[in-house]
Amino acid sequence: MFRKDKAVVLLSGGLDSVVSLAIAIQEMEIVMALTFNYGQRAYGKEIRASRQIADYYRVPHQVIPLPWFSGLLPKALHFAQEASDRGMSNPWGTASIKDEHFLEAKPVWVPNRNGVFLNIAASFAEAHEASHIIFGANAEEGEAFPDNTPDFQAAINQSFQFSTLNHPQVLSPVGDLNKSEIMDQALALKVPLDLIWSCYNDGMTQCGTCPSCYRLKQAIGKADSAALLEGKLSFTH
């Protein structure tokens, strides 16, 4: 019998990581999906979405708390402790979309976040004898975020030659795709889009105004089968 490669998945609950999981699970045995609570504004929504998606795909799921990370977060991503603050703490308004810096990395940059996440995933991969780590990096975000690029992936894969014994390799199933192409993949694979959470905020619905929501809405509009998305994703704005 053909033996599938084993993989650990980084699962945030957002479009990119979920589609990456949906692609990988067709050819690999997913031994663990990891979601990180690092004090981000939307951690509750991300954990809930990730748990539901892991259940949907029947994948073991674990939340990794990183409380020390919260002190390193940019203001835009930091979780507001008071409920009154949360209700009025969306740092993005509709006018922000016109800002030339709106989609840049700096306002939401978390120091070495993906490096930390992938190194933790490598520990799980080695312990579970997994040969791959599934990572939702993509071409569109790679233009602004250097830790979404093939060069970063190659560098961290090289580092695992020294820091692990089984040398797991990072694999980005959507690494060559932009957001609309990822959305097309989601539709083709019948991904449960009603379960995803791609928003930086933690409201009742995705805010529709943060950079992540903006990219998602643009992808919906450009997707080949945009009509099929009606009712699957909702936004406050």
Compact overview of the structure:
The chain is α/β, with parallel strands linked by helices. The chain has helices at 15-24, 43-57, 83-86, 113-127, 139-142, 150-163, 179-188, 211-222; strands at 5-10, 28-37, 61-65, 132-134, 169-171.
Runs in which pLDDT lies below 50 for 5 or more consecutive residues are: 81-88
Helix content: 25-40%
Which structural category fits the helices and strands?
A: alpha/beta
Approximate shape:
globular
The total count of helices amounts to 8
Q: What kind of oligomer do you see?
A: single chain
Strand order of the largest sheet: 3-2-1-4-5
Distance between the termini: 51 Å
| Radius of gyration from the alpha-carbon trace, in angstroms | 17 Å
For the biggest sheet, the summary is:
5 strands, parallel
Mean pLDDT: 87
Number of strands: 5
> N-to-C SSE series?
EHEHEHHEHHEHH
Indicate the proportion of strand residues.
5-15%
How would you describe what is shown here?
The radius of gyration is 17 Å and the shape is globular. It has helices spanning 15-24, 43-57, 83-86, 113-127, 139-142, 150-163, 179-188, 211-222; strands at 5-10, 28-37, 61-65, 132-134, 169-171. Mean pLDDT is 87; it is low at 81-88. It has eight helices and five strands. The termini are far apart. Strands 3-2-1-4-5 form a five-stranded parallel sheet, sandwiched between helices. Helix 1 (15-24) packs across helix 7 (179-188) and helix 7 crosses helix 8 (211-222). The protein is α/β, with parallel strands linked by helices and 237 residues long.
